[in-house]
Amino acid sequence: MTMEFATRYRSRSRIPAEQGKPYFIEKGMGDRAHLFTDLVTVYAGGEQTENAFNFFTVEGPKGDLIPAHSHADTHEVFYVTDGAVRLFVEDLQGEQQEKLLTAGDFGFVPKNCPHAYRIERHHSRIVGVAAGPGGTFERFFENLGTPTEELGLPVQPYVPEPHKFGTVPHEYDVRFLPDHQWRTGN
User: Fold this and answer.
1) Splitting the chain (186 residues) into consecutive groups of 10 residues, what average pLDDT does each group show?
2) How is the beta sheet containing 84-90 ordered, strand by strand?
């Protein structure tokens, strides 16, 4: 049995709001949100780690490119546990790379590097970890997307209203780059 807590983000959460409290979460039972065609599940965040890191999964179907964005103060890890994900990244000198990551592959994106990804196979899953001096951004997903108690992917894609994209950069260290062009060919 997993305990439930009330937090400032949710009336029901399996993640304790206070630091220094050990806890366990059963598979898929973290704080969940739908964003675009994906299900994001947060297992640990800034409140539990003194803003040192977060830990989340993203599951989704084969789909469109997630919009290019960067994090001024946050490094991000992509570890694929199922399926295939194409990671696009640009370094600080403007050199772009892309890499198809499959189960067991790892990608690292340093802070300030524009990046995006596209899920290439249905039923793909990414384990994400973000860390940096600016804190963590795990609550971005439910604030841009929509919190859900469902365990599966959204029945209909959840596309945020355009004005919501402007509300997240300062609070969650996510800066969207709508005019960014990928020159890598895929």
Assistant:
1) 66 82 92 96 91 94 94 95 98 97 98 97 96 83 92 94 80 89 83
2) 96-102, 84-90, 115-119, 69-70, 175-176
